[in-house]
Amino acid sequence: MTKFFMIVVLSATLIIVSGSVQAVVYVDKDRSGGNGSSWSQAYRTIESAIAGAGNNQEFWIAEGTYTPASVLAPKNGSKFYGGFAGTETALSQRDVDAHPVIVDGQNSLKHVFLVDNKSGVRIDGLTITRGKAIPPGTSQEEYGGGISVWTLGAEIVNCKFVNNSSSWRGGGLFIKGAASLVDGCQFTGNTSASGGGACLV
Question: Taking the model in full, what pTM does it have?
Answer without folding.
Answer: 0.88
